[in-house]
Specification:
Growth Hormone, Chain: A; single chain; 78% helix; 409 residues; 2 domains; mainly alpha
């Protein structure tokens, strides 16, 4: 049991909610710069330096794959240098990365910037956010996670348009340097003041094990059926989700025009916020596996209807329904891990699970693009996404054995 269970988590005075604010800001800038902003970098670096799109895209792929490797060791880093130091290292690396993106002159600097961004993900990404909130919350854990991870969606909704507007008015270099300064000014004091473990929570209570124990817990996780029936379906669903998100505009533009396709993206992002907030209010009273399966099936149904209609209204509604569950795919894993694997192996399970799902989902856009090229349109590609979501929903409902504690003392 974690330290938070003996206090009133519903009180606005509970310190854990200030930790949620810190995590919201971390997610806002980490996902805004590290995920959604990459489309901006692709366009601006091509324009500024004449570099081919394949060069910048390859750097993005390199960054995502490196991140998927580094996050495996999050629990070791938490045990070795501590929570606040790890977050500050992540903030420093992300700030160096975004500043370098504005200042760079040579292609090798692009890969250095993206490598630094991967370090930023390790210190400020979803594994650290989920681990610290797991330590602070028990009864309102789902709501805390939903509120914090909404920072990721707002990072896409707010930061990307701001970067585009600033790049047009003052130039990409000044835009990146200015945004970096704002991030440091906002995040640094909040992290220093608010981020910590609960006062009476030990390292193990927070899901952090020492080096040898952490390595042993990862070995046992790979032999744990509950772990795999959580990781595999999430990875499969995220593969389909990433594929649809990247190809959404290309699919919709011939049907409803560029402006309406852009509106569909906005609606989907807005519904992701609504979905996280709505689920956060009730998820702590729900079975997370059932809720996860329902979310996957709703996305499958939305895609199925999308393939059957050419009505602009229906297509926009389908994108709204699909978006409702987008954000929750990274909210369910920590809830399932805490219930079925336990807090002592929490950081190890989150790191390993995030790594596996990250590597698998990275292939989503490429697979969808390949199927579309072979078949001639998106019907077969999105039908495959429907099948993947249904299969994922079936796997996540499988509950092998009893609750398994994997971490060792």
């Amino acid at each position: 049991m974690i330290a938070a269970t003996g206090v009133d988590e519903s009180s606005v005075h509970y310190r854990g909610w200030r930790v949620v604010l810190a995590c919201f800001l971390m997610a806002f800038f980490m996902f805004g710069f590290g995920l959604y902003g990459q489309g901006v970098y692709l366009a601006e670096l091509q324009r500024a330096h004449g570099w081919p799109g394949t060069l910048v895209s390859a750097a993005s792929t390199f960054s995502f794959l490196l991140t998927s490797v580094l996050v495996i060791f999050t629990d070791d880093l938490l045990a070795r240098i501590g929570l606040r130091a790890l977050i500050l290292c992540g903030l420093t690396a992300l700030g160096a990365s975004t500043a370098l993106l504005g200042l760079m002159q040579a292609p090798w600097q692009l890969y250095l910037a993206y490598a630094l961004m991967s370090v930023g993900w390790t210190g400020m990404g979803s594994v650290v956010i989920a681990t610290v909130l797991n330590a602070w919350f028990a009864r309102r854990r789902g709501l805390a996670l939903s509120l914090a991870f909404n920072g990721a969606t707002f990072g896409g909704i707010i930061l990307v348009p701001v970067l585009l507007a600033l790049s047009s008015s003052i130039g990409f270099r000044s835009a990146m340097l200015g945004a970096t300064i704002v991030m440091v000014v906002l995040v640094l004091p909040v992290v220093v003041v608010f981020t910590s473990w609960p006062v009476d929570a030990s390292r193990n209570a927070a899901g952090v094990s020492g080096g040898k124990a952490a390595r042993h817990s990862r070995k046992e996780l790979l032999a744990n059926a509950s772990f795999w029936t959580m990781v595999l379906p999430i990875a499969i669903a995220l593969l389909a989700q990433m594929g649809f998100i990247i190809h959404q505009v290309t699919f919709l533009e011939p049907l409803i025009g560029r402006a309406s396709a852009g509106l569909a993206v906005t609606i989907m992002a807005a519904m992701a916020v609504v979905g996280r907030l709505s689920l956060g209010l009730f998820v702590d009273r729900l079975d997370p596996r059932l809720a996860c399966a329902a979310s996957m099936m709703s996305q499958a149904a939305a895609l199925l209807v999308l393939l059957q209609s050419q009505s602009p209204t229906v297509l926009l509604i389908c994108c709204a329904v699909y978006g409702f569950s987008i954000g929750n795919m990274i909210t369910f894993p920590p809830l399932i891990i805490q219930r079925e694997i336990g807090s002592t192996a929490f950081a190890a399970a989150m790191g390993l699970g995030t790594s596996i799902s990250g590597i698998v989902s990275a292939f989503g856009p490429g697979i969808i693009g390949l199927v579309r090229s072979v078949s001639g349109d998106y019907t077969m590609a999105f039908a495959m996404c429907v099948v993947l979501d249904v299969v994922a929903a079936g796997i996540v409902l499988w509950r092998p054995g009893k609750r398994a504690e994997v971490a060792t003392s």
